[in-house]
Structure formats: structure tokens, C-alpha cells
């Protein structure tokens, strides 16, 4: 019984820390021609929560939605699109994830032809069991709408 209560408290703390107050979690844009690029996480063993800020060129693309990826399929995601060129993402999996894969998928529409970097900023990863911050290293991605080419942004957990 005490373990269940502790688990509920841990989930509540993670939600309070990770999710940005006032997150809308959606978009009114239902336009067609949408594309998807994932955010990949490597070595996610024990990962319980993520705060991610993805920065991109809003003259080239517009983010319309953020959904769970294959690695994050048992979690919950919320996001904020209030600032053009930046999407703030909060992700939580109270049981913790294991392995590597796509934690979320970013859906976007193309505004014009060109290249945009996909930079990960202010990434914070939290251990599901201890609630300690985990060491993260990020690699930027890129998107070229001229050639329909992309490189996935990556979050590496651990040293």
C-alpha cells in the first residue's frame, strides 16, 4: 500500500516538474500535407520524464502536433506552440522507459522551400525511480524541404 502511495506521489511530482504551466497540447491547424520527424532517445533505461525545447526556422516549417513515438508509447505528452520557431515538449512515463527509439514525433507543415536546423535546447531528463536528473547530450537534426531530406534530432542519455 505504501509503495502505491509513493508511486502516486512520484508521478505527481514528475508531472509538476516536467509539464509547463499553461500548455495547450494542441493546435487548431488541421491543414493537409503534413510531415513527421521523430525525436530519438538513446539509452533511455529508467527514463521517466523529459523536458525538450525544439527550435526551428518558422519561415520554413510550422509545427502542428506532437504525438508519442514508439519508445514513448506508454507515456503521456503535452506541448506548447505559443512561440513561432519553438515547441516546448513535456513527456512522462511513470514506469520508466528502456532502450532506444523515437520518444515523440513532431508533425509539421511546410511554409516554404529551404533548410531548417532542428536544435534541441534546455533538455532535462529525469529518472523514473530516483527522480534525479540524468546526464544528457544532444545532437541537432535538420530538415531540407527542397530535397525532402531530414536528419533526426537525438538525445543521448548517460555520459
SSE order and pairing:
Elements: H1 2-18, E1 35-42, E2 47-55, E3 61-68, E4 76-83, E5 86-97, E6 101-110, E7 115-127, E8 133-134, E9 136-139, E10 141-144, E11 149-151, E12 154-157
Parallel strand pairs: 1-12
Antiparallel strand pairs: 1-6, 2-5, 2-7, 3-6, 4-5, 7-8, 7-10, 9-12, 10-11
What does this structure look like?
With 159 residues, the protein is mostly beta strands. The protein has one domain: Immunoglobulin-like, CATH 2.60.40.680. It is 11% helix and 53% strand. It has one helix at residues 2-18; strands at 35-42, 47-55, 61-68, 76-83, 86-97, 101-110, 115-127, 133-134, 136-139, 141-144, 149-151, 154-157. Strand 10 and strand 11 form a beta hairpin. The radius of gyration is 16 Å and the shape is elongated.
Strand composition percent: over 45%
**Mind summarizing the main beta sheet?**
7 strands, antiparallel
CATH class category: Mainly Beta
Count of runs of 4 or more consecutive helical residues: 1
Give average pLDDT, whole number: 85
**What class do helices, strands and sheet pairing give?**
mainly beta
Domain tally: 1
Number of strands: 12
> What would you report as the Rg, rounded to the nearest angstrom?
16 Å
CATH arch. level architecture:
Sandwich
Order of helices and strands: HEEEEEEEEEEEE
**What fold name stands as the CATH topology?**
Immunoglobulin-like
Give the overall silhouette.
elongated
* Uncertain stretches of 5 or more adjacent residues: 3-8, 15-32
User: How many angstroms separate the termini?
Assistant: 36 Å
Helix percent reads 10-25%
